[in-house]
Amino acid sequence: MFGLGTPELIIILAIAFLVFGGKKLPEIGSGLGKAIGSFKKGLSDVEEAGSELKKSIPLAKEVAEVKETFDKAKDFSSSPGK
After folding, report:
1. In angstroms, how far is the first alpha carbon of the chain from the final one?
2. pLDDT tens-digit profile of 26-62?
3. Residues 5/12, Cβ–Cβ less than 8 Å
4. What b-and-e string marks burial along 70-80, b requiring 16 or more CB atoms within 10 Å of the CB?
5. Is the pTM here over 0.85, yes or no?
6. What DSSP line would sit under 46-69, residue for residue?
7. What are the start-end ranges of the H helices in 1-82?
8. At residue 1, does pLDDT exceed 60?
9. What is the pLDDT, as a whole number, of residue 25?
10. Average pLDDT over residues 63-73
């Protein structure tokens, strides 16, 4: 998680407690949780729209298959057992 360990998180929480006080921390945590949830929902909506767009493009499946075949051939030709 971003390279943060337990000691770093404790220090960050202690500083937040000193800056915002004990009464504001639950409100801040709740707002942060809602923001993260909203961001994840928006991200999944964008991914879903992208996959629907790919499905609606003519010949997209065939192009993907050709690309996959090309990548396999390229990997095979560059393998060290040549």
Report:
1. 41
2. 898 899 999 999 999 999 999 999 888 877 887 877 8
3. no
4. eeeeeeeeeee
5. no
6. HHHHHHHHHHHSTTHHHHHHHHHH
7. 6-20, 25-56, 60-77
8. no
9. 86
10. 88
pLDDT in tens, 13-24: 899 889 988 888
| Amino acid occupying residue 59 | L
* Residue 1, amino acid: M
Residue with tokens 């707002």: 31
28 contacts 20 by C-beta, under 8 angstroms: yes
Residue 25 and residue 16 in contact, taking contact as beta carbons nearer than 8 Å: yes
**Nearest-angstrom CA–CA distance, 47 and 65:** 20
CB proximity list for 16: less than 8 A, separation 6 or greater: 25, 28
